[in-house]
Amino acid sequence: MENEYRPHTLKMSKMTEETPDVYTIEMDSKNEGRAGQFYMLSVPGVGEAPISVASGFGRNLIFTIRDVGSVTSKLKNLQFVGIRGPYGTGWPWKEYDEVIGVAGGIGIPPIRSLLEEMMDSGRQQDLEVMYGARTPSDLVYKKDFGDWTKSINLQITVDRANAEWNGNVGFVPALLRKAHLSRMAAVFVIGPPLMMINTVKEALKLGYREDRIFISLERRMECGIGVCGHCNIGEHYVCESGPIINYSRVRNDKELFL
Amino acid sequence: MESAFVAISSDFQVYGAVERDGDVIFDRVAGFDQVSEERSRYAPKEFLMKRNENVLILNVESKKAVFGIKSCDLKGFYLMDKQIFGKDPFYTQKREKTLFANFVCSEPCNGGFCSSFGGPVLDQYDLQILREGEKFHVMVSEKYDRYFREFKKETGTFYVDFSNRFNSKLEPLPVEGIEKRIKWNSELWKEYASACISCGACNFECPTCYCFDLYDDGNERKKEWDSCILSGFTSSSAGNIRKGLDERLRQRFYHKFVYFKKSKDTYLCTGCNRCVEDCPVGIDIKEVITYDYNGE
Amino acid sequence: MSVLTVCPYCGTGCQMVIPTQTPGERVIGYSKSPVNEGKLCLKGYSGLSYNFSKERLKYPLIKRNGEFVRVSWEAALTETSNRLKKIIREYGPDSVAFQSSAKCTNEENYLMQKIARVIGTNNIDHCARSCHSPTAMGLITTLGAGAATGSINSLDDSKTYFVIGSNTTEQHPIIGTKIIKGSKKGKNLIVADPRKTQLAEIASIHLQFNPGTDVALLNSIMHVILEGNLEDTKFIEERTEGFRALRQELAKYSPEIVEGITGIEPGKLREAAKIIAKEKPTSILYAMGITQHVHGTENVMSISNLALLTGNLGVRGSGIFPLRGQNNVQGSSDMGALSEWYPGYIPVNSDSVKRFEILWKRSLPTKTGLTLSEMFDAAVDGSLKAIYIMGENPLVTEAAISDVEKGIENLELLIVQDIFMTLTAGLADIVLPATTSLEKEGTFTNTERRIQKVNVIYDSPGEAMPDWWILNEIGKRVGGLESYDTPRSIFEEIRKAIPNYSGATYENIYPTGKQWPINKENPDGTEILHTKSFPIGKGKLVPIPYRPPVEVTDAKYDFIMTTGRNYFHFHSGTMSRRADVLERESPEPYVEINTEDAKRIGVRDSQKITIESRHGSIETNVRTTEKIPAGIVFVPFHFDESRVNRLVGKTLDPLSKIPEFKVVAVRLVV
Fold first, then answer.
1. CA distances (Å), origin A119, targets A104, A123, C390
2. Which residues in chain B are closer than 8 Å to C203, comparing Cβ atoms?
3. Burial state string for A33-69 with b = 16 or more CB within 10 A and e = fewer than 16
4. Which of A74, A194, A220, A250 to mutate to test the interface with B (most CBs of B within 10 A)?
5. Residue C1 above 70 pLDDT?
6. Could you tell me the pLDDT band of residue A258, with boundaries at 50, 70 and 90?
7. Domain A8-87, CATH 2.40.30.10 — does that match?
8. Does B233 sit within 8 Å of A227, measured CB to CB?
9. Record: contact A3-B239, CB cut-off 8 A
10. Best interface-test mutation with C: which of B66, B204, B206, B274 has the largest number of C CBs within 10 A?
11. How far apart are CA B273 and CA C223, in angstroms?
């Protein structure tokens, strides 16, 4: 049996600062994972952290990372990154004719990955993306927005505007009203707990089907392979049944959102 | 028995339950007669999951045979298998290469409640040994049948009778349906939290607890046994879903009696009573099963 | 190899079984142990991985041009002894000092103090100075023995527990569980603590008094007892002296007056006093909350007064239990690794020192030596030239760290013998790699005087050697000491040196230990002390006037800070911070602030904050809690990245020389 815990070492080809505490790294290797899945990235002597992939399947591996801990603060300065995965579930976009991706804050990378995958399959017309951040300076991938708006309906909002901002102001869930796709569309939601709760509520209110809403769960994850037990919620291990999971499967779980 | 033991010894490193300073532990043994039939002080789960090991290097393990493990402790592995066999390479390799020869108790032990989960005669085993007076009856799995070709096989209802006899001496707890009776907001969790000192014994001594922590130590990445009653078990930069000790204690019981039942259709408990024996403040999992939640 | 040994953490001295022949480094409590009855706490279960840490010291190191260079043992021992000898030759024996360790065995402590004394100095001290020196000083004065009077097991027979200045469930968890179980069974539990500890939460009465007002509180409790004629008249008459003077002093402490000092409502105090006196036997448990004060010794004597007054001594279930912090504080103190006592608490300036002159065949120093903090002062003023430290990390644990730093800088020679490159070791000229207590043989004496066998469980890394071996080599070279081949041969000498240990052998203390005094009269050891009389005849009742703490709040420094340990870590964290699960549970320095205080000054959880005292400042993280009263903050001292002892001043108890770690006026700067 392969030693699943042993990471590969990949060369980092590029590092971009997105915001003061968010950065994007790109590897010299292809992504073998699906949008929504995650990899375990590691810094030798420090540890591992689960990071969702931000690029589409088959493209160069890209991760966008927020500096919040010992591993995530050190990844950006590495030449070689330890990596294993991909793990967990992805967005099941192939099963639906229409998809609305809703991302709050640092939840955007898996939606970026989704967007690339659907574009690469020529299905960009079936996708809309709603993205919100606290302030304009918290928005990541700003340089990609131009390209994306050419192919999809991309709606962006901020909680608090500044002088230069002339876009939407307000919380992400409200953006759902600007969606053009039908109420039969699958809604993929990822972001902070409160944002996900409100987005799900809003989606249900607007008439989207509960069994077509997918959320992304966040938990402490260590092994990534359903063994170590840290990410257990109810009968699920987030690294196995999630992180992307159908809302109707977990709606009654009392420990769903942090 | 001794001849089978010798044959096994030529293929395996053999360990057995032995007494040291009054506690029964596991050590290398050279003969079947050295193996203690007393219940070991602890469930020897370190044979398949070391307390602490480097996960960056997967060494080829030697074949080991462990004599004298009791059925309740062995059953823990069969339950763990459902979640981690085939996924964790360290566990899986050792599981495949370790032969367990379990002793079946003929008398209930003090505090144990294995009859609530089927009793000491297991339907999955490598070598299952029952003593009847001076005679040993051995049930052998297909995998290890070669060591017992010359032995006379028990037929008929011997094992079923043995099992029924044992279970009639130890009345099962009303565990069936506990997943429906147990209450999320029970006072029990708060009461336990007021006494619990977070020692982790209930996890470390449980034959079915398999959770571990991964961490880096220099150029090694290690896994070490973990405990779900500790706050750091679930805390992350995003927050902590189980801030209160009462919530964490509840998680332990819910995982055993509700979540595992839902996902694997069995309870994650063998009735060994080790978590009760080793709890320094007397928290009793049997109470979780028998408690009148409706009466609260 | 053996499988049985003693936990390396607190003074409870839990026995653990570590089956070494099977894979996996399994640890379990020893079920036959009268101490822990098979139980362990999280530090026992998950705290041993430091033994296998990649950071262990493996080779002797000598600093050359500011860099450590690996050398052979022969080179290290030669250089250590030559440099020590040179300093002794030039400046005399009192220019050298030794810091022993309560983490080391009795044999090692005995050996280190012997080396110091044989070369002619009483400059030998260790961390008991910072924890229980007031206990030794106080209880030897009042009862004649500076140790717990009963056994851990005897706590099962208590009807009432009075816990003061001890967060027992976190610091001596297995002893804490006795109290929890007792309390859940309906026994009385009275907790006096400024913080709402786990025991306080379940207590029948929680006296949440102001830090540093212990004497007032205890005197007031005794005032109530006398007021209600609840004292044990027979006991007082037959077994104590000094009652009249005590009575006179106590008259001043009516609960109504004392409320203004302690903040305790008189009704509550009266109720507590009545339970302590009436619901006997009462056991009194205390720890650093009593001792780490400028009046630490007086606190201890007040506790002794209370026990004597209520006749709570000499009977199972009663007694005084100073809970020892380190696994071998009792033993290292018994061994005389203290500047004022030879082994067995023989005062350095007494005639009894002669017995050691005969035993060691030398004339010996009789001048009191330097205590821990005095050593660094002497280094600053230049009179002390060399310090030899075994297993201590004063740059983290000592009060007034900046003085320690200055002192070390001024030394000609610093030798550190340790298992890790601690902050202190980093400044050493010579670093000697030692083995852990799980890699060597010897004995520890736990908090209930139980002498227990420590055994080799694991192989040691690299060239690390047991402390006794290193000391033996140094002793031969520097002091011309005879050579000991084994810890057993040192123990045999200890039996001759200390009458209370005379009956103990490596054989008869195995496996479950024996409580001293163990001698001809008590061949099986002694579970309960003072059953018929005290070693000094009658117990002394000592009137203790209340004196306020030295550090007081003012407009600028408006918070009182207390310092201590948390459940997950141990002292300077050398061991526990290298144990994965423990470090994960408590990974960073913090200050506990009352939730309302935090709101008032506008800080939230995890926010960085600066704490300033009159002595220094540190940065740390906020942790808000309801468990600490307004106006008080708590900071653990485990974290070398934010050393709280920078804030602690050097106000010492004049009797025991312990610094006041528990009361420091600070301000919080956001």
1. 21, 6, 67
2. none
3. bbbbbbbbbbbbebbbbbbbbbbbbebebbbbbbbee
4. A220
5. no
6. confident
7. yes
8. no
9. no
10. B204
11. 49
| Separation in Å, CA of B277 to nearest CA in chain C | 9
CATH of A93-216, one of 3.40.1210.10, 1.10.3720.10, 3.40.50.1110, 3.40.50.80: 3.40.50.80
Question: What value does the mean pLDDT take over residues C396-407?
Answer: 93
Show Cβ contacts of residue C34 under 8 Å, excluding neighbours closer than 6 positions.
C151, C152, C153, C450, C512, C513
- Contact criterion met (CB < 8 Å) for A226 and B84: yes
pLDDT tens-place string over residues A65-111: 999 989 999 999 999 999 999 999 999 999 999 999 999 999 999 99
What is the amino acid identity at position B244? G
The pLDDT assigned to B150 comes to 76
Say whether B213 and C581 touch across the interface (CB within 8 A): yes
Ranges of CATH 3.40.50.80 domains, chain A? 93-216
Query: Interface pTM (ipTM) of the complex?
Result: 0.96
Q: Does C301 touch chain B (CB under 8 A)?
A: no
Ranges of chain B whose pLDDT falls below 50: none
Interface check B88 vs A, CB under 8 A: yes
- Taking CA atoms, C260 is separated from A92, C193, C255, C264, C266, in Å, by 69, 17, 9, 8, 10
Q: Which domains does chain C have, with CATH numbers?
A: 141-322 (3.40.228.10), 559-669 (2.40.40.20)
Name the residue facing B27 among C22, C44, C55 (closest C-beta): C22
pLDDT for the residue B3:
87
Q: What is the pLDDT of residues C25-45, one digit of tens each?
A: 899 999 999 999 999 999 999
* Nearest-Cα residue of chain C relative to residue B215: C580
The pLDDT of residue C21 is 84
Q: Do B52 and C49 touch (CB under 8 A)?
A: yes
C-alpha distance from residue C226 to each of A220, B20, B267 (Å) = 58, 54, 60
What pLDDT does B134 receive? 87
Q: What is the pLDDT of residues A197-240, one digit of tens each?
A: 999 999 999 999 999 999 999 999 999 999 999 999 999 999 99
Q: Which of B56, B84, B236 sits opposite A5 (nearest CB)?
A: B56
Beta partners for A22?
A19, A66
Q: Which residues of B touch C176 (CB under 8 A)?
A: 197
